[in-house]
Amino acid sequence: MIMNILFVSPSFNPLDGIGWGSTQRTNLLFEACTQLGHVDVISFVDGVISNREDCTVLYSNSKPKAGQREGRVMKFLRMLTPLNPYAMFPKNKACAEIVRGFIAQKHYDLIVCRYIPEAMMCGLYDYANRLVIDVDDNPVDVERTAARASRTWRNRMYHSYRAAIIEKVVNKIQKSCRFTFYANPEQAIYTNSAYLPNIPFYEYKLPLVEYAMTSPRLLFVGNMSYGPNAHGVDKFVDNIFPMIRKHIHDAELHLVGGCNQQAFLDKWNKVEGVKYMGFVDDLQQEYQDARVVVVPIYGGAGTNIKVLEAMQMKRPCVTTIYGVRGFKEYFRDGNEIMIAEDDASFAEKVVKLLKTEHLNHEIVSQAYKAVIGNFSHKAFNEVVESKLKSIC
């Protein structure tokens, strides 16, 4: 069966996979959909262009403004109607009307969108019987992370209450939708859901740079404009990196990725051995020059593709219990990865990998086999194709 699929992408160019985890997964999902039939695209991003026979871009323009910004009273009042998905995830009326206009012109077997808030923003709950959502970052986890990170009791109570309400809303959306994908297998518990793994975007084979050819350099790769990444790096710089430098005086840390929080940048750049690189022209070279990749993540939603990318790039990775969430059945502490329980454990495991060549190589070898065997483009496409075919 050749399908007609509408792919709605409010925040990313689905035809362009260059960038970080969110843009890459959007592109991967789009490409998987093109294997099933013709895909029409609506994107609220400028410059989405297609010269392909299997894809037509119906709309590409900046996202219309949602209107006047809501005050606290209105946000509170919306939480009093928890069974209305549009109350917790407001509809952008202009976006919804654009989408509605195109849907009225053509029959679509499926309507695909990433993220629950973005699907609701575009009014896609009105087409729930055809709607496929790649949930990825579960909004419940986002609110719980915000509650844990809150510095005042009022904010903690606010985000905790929102998490409880949103959990009910997500369950309602889940039951109404045609199908959902989750990046965390522990959340794909519904009959109309499936685990769709995050995968490293780079599939080319890299030569293993010998341990002796690297310096004691650590690498973090990620979007540090995203709160959990920025706060994780900050905790690492404050608490863990000094312990590492006590044992290895010339250890250094390179931070690669965007960051719009100048206060963090000013602070990190004052720490000896820490260098913020921003965006780099050759990410592969950064991986090859590093001896260990660190992923100090203590909150957030979804799974950490940066863990998989480190393994694909043949670099040992040290992360937290939270950072390996969703990968537990594939990666074991001390075999394919190093998992730290606290700051002291994190520093100890990094030092071991910086100092011990055979351990460094063993972790790399085991991790590379595991990630190639379980997290490939082929595996991703097979999940999307089999599940979407089964519901049409």
What share of the residues lie within helices?
A: 40-55%
Taken as a percent bin, the fraction of beta residues is 15-25%
What is the average per-residue confidence, as pLDDT, rounded to a whole number? 87
Give the overall shape, derived from the CA principal axes.
globular
Instruction: Report the uncertain regions.
Output: none
Query: What's the name of the CATH homologous superfamily of the largest domain?
Result: Glycogen Phosphorylase B
Return the CATH architecture of the largest domain: 3-Layer(aba) Sandwich
Report the total helices: 14
Strand order of the largest sheet: 3-2-1-4-5-6-7
SSE string, helix = H, strand = E? EHEEHHHEHEHHEEEHEHEHEHEEHHH
Written description of the protein model:
This protein is of the alpha/beta class. The protein folds into two domains: 3-199 and 377-390, Glycogen Phosphorylase B (Rossmann fold), CATH 3.40.50.2000; 211-374, Glycogen Phosphorylase B (Rossmann fold). The protein has 14 helices and 13 strands. It has a seven-stranded parallel β-sheet with strand order 3-2-1-4-5-6-7, sandwiched between helices. A six-stranded parallel β-sheet has the order 10-9-8-11-12-13, sandwiched between helices. Strand 8, helix 8 and strand 9 form a beta-alpha-beta unit. The termini are close together. The mean pLDDT is 87.
